Amino acid sequence: MGVGSFFTSKLDEAIGWGRKYSIFQYPFVTACCGMEYMATACSHYDVDRFGAGLPRFSPRQADVLFVVGTISHKMAPVLKRIYDQMCEPKWVVAFGVCTCTGGFYNNYATVQGIDTIIPVDVYIPGCPPRPESVIDGLMKLQEKIATGAQRY
Amino acid sequence: MDGQAILARLETRLGARLLGTHDHRGDHTAIVAREGIIEALTFSRDESDLRFNVLMDLTAVDYLKLPGREDGPRFDVVYHLYSIPHNHRIRLKVPVEQDDPVVPTATSLWPIANWLEREVWDMFGIRFAGHPDLRRLLMYEEFEGHPLRKDYPIERRQPLIGPKV
Amino acid sequence: MTSEASRQARAGDSPGARAMVNGEASRTTRELFLGEGAGGGTQNLTVNIGPAHPAMHGIIRILAELDGEIIVKSDVEIGYLHRAFEKDCEVGPWNNAMPYTDRLNYVSPLINNFGYCSAVEKLLGIDITERCKYIRVIMSEISRICDHLTCVGASAMELGAFTVFLYMIKAREFLWELVEDVTGARLTISYGRVGGVKADLPAGFDDKVKKAFVEVRQVLEEVHVLITGNRIFMDRMVGVGALSAEETVAWAITGPLLRAAGVPFDVRKAQPYWAYDRVQFEIPLGKNGDNFDRYLVRMAEMEQSMRIVEQALGALPGGSIQVDWEGKAIDPAAYVDRGKQGKTEGLLFVPIALSPNLQGQGRDAQKRVNAPDKRVVLPPKENTYGSIEGLMNHFMLVMEGFGIRPPMGEAYFAVEGANGELGFYVVSDGSDRPYRVRCRPPCLPPVAAMSRMIEGQMVADIIPTFGSVNMIGGELDR
Hints:
The structure holds three protein chains of three kinds. By secondary structure, chain B is an alpha/beta fold.
């Protein structure tokens, strides 16, 4: 931009734009989906292109909770607690069909979808989802973040 | 050592406490009374030509709904043994009644029996007399019932948090 | 230093332990925090690690009682990924358990598939085709390499060697492309079938394997340069988490952990199954049974697995697949229409142009890879749509109450999983669904022995030990 040129923006749009490209995710990896999460995070698919390359393994430093893999009833209180420990603004991604609905584990041990415990922003179905659909889900989340559709 | 020979050795040792044998599909199996199981395990482990030094697996089967076994003992506790020096296998089974689901523990013979027995207690509700720490292994303490029993419905959930479904 | 020695060392009055508050030199730091009369001795601290811990790639909880940095006692709790595998299997027909077995050890799902299939085949008393045996060997070994790559990569990452993780996942990606070519999926593949496999190998598979193995070998070489002999890596691995051979056997630990302790037990050698007696390979052995030996054994095993795959591909009966259609192939939809209209005369001999995702599932391919047993194996789709016998055969296998019905009895079949002996104990009551399926999880014994491995060691030693145990939740908790 040359001297004298300017552009206007709303403050929340600017913040949303900034947030969109600095996603610090907390991968709550429990099961098979973790393997695809690893694949997505590594060189071949490279989520770093979307500004989500640095997983923070502490809920206090993260703003997106990736729930990756089946959540059993034994694990549910742990997940809830980790969600509560995260600072606002926070988003939740349900990664894999087990977290969306319980998947084909319709039995005594498995939670039938994590949205019975915590609110979810983006659902990525698949058992496990391919890296391409993970990236698609991530981009959907970015849109959601940029438009400021987050809860407070 | 040939499977039949192993069963013959067990038979001479256990006598009447050996309730039966079979070798369905080549898996040599000895059905042992509860009173004889610790002796059978110790004997299989320590005898120089048997030397079953690995307790490969310890599990149970609930025969509640098996046709033809309605009147027999409800459970079988199943031991799979393997011998690394002799490269042979054997299966031992102990019938357990529903009213008195107790089997002596094998923790003094193999440390791994500790967890495997805890799992059987968790899943089937069979107790192991003399076990040092018989807690649930896979389910949580608040869980009621034993899920792998045939009369436990697969969809009976007992959530700790969230909606009670 | 043993825990006893360290306790004695710290129980003594060291100058640092005394605080000068208002000139009262007699108060210890401990008394400052805990009040008068708290004494000068030390007290053990109980620390909870997990189930969601940054440095552990699995969900397991360790309650450790610490004396300073030394673990005095620990209790390992599992079950956070219990998904009722054994109960789920009892619900559906025999082949329906296949997707559940995928998710046991989700890093090497092919071995689980084939292990379960072989157990059911043993129960049925049927034999599979020679080509299928080789395919099972090839795919199992590729799976084993994936598993070891993930295990070594993840545990190196937890020790700070992130590069190794990136490299190994890159190599795994090349292998997953092979798996995807054969099975249609990357991870949860459901490729096994009772009596055979889902589809034959695709055309040009051996060339792709060769290319992928070049990449994998290069990665292994790079990793050797990066961490084998690296001072930081060695310091954290050598002598840590060691178990003697006797103890390893007593804990029923099999697989790489047992071989790292110097015991040459491998189910593939001891009781060869499929085609393992017709390929040459060695069992890599360690000496000390510590984490470093486990790492070396895994690295060497990957090389051996590649050797097995190369030999098996060379000896594959029927050669590499060149699908050679005679006559003009017709569209599957047209084929089905002809069948529906009753124009079935000669239809069985008309080849179908299969879509790429059905490659390897034509009649000829099915004949090569599946046992010729109508009680067990679904007929090829040409027969199902082209003849009434084929259709009835298909229905008999998928209808409720029919299907695969092994005679009443029980069978145990063990294969060498990536973590050790993977056994399936199946019980049939003569009906179309399993009465009981039990999986002997190869990573349960090492996790059970983990408290034994980490006791007397430092807190930081939990991480490499946990990494070398290669705990896989799906298999551990089922």
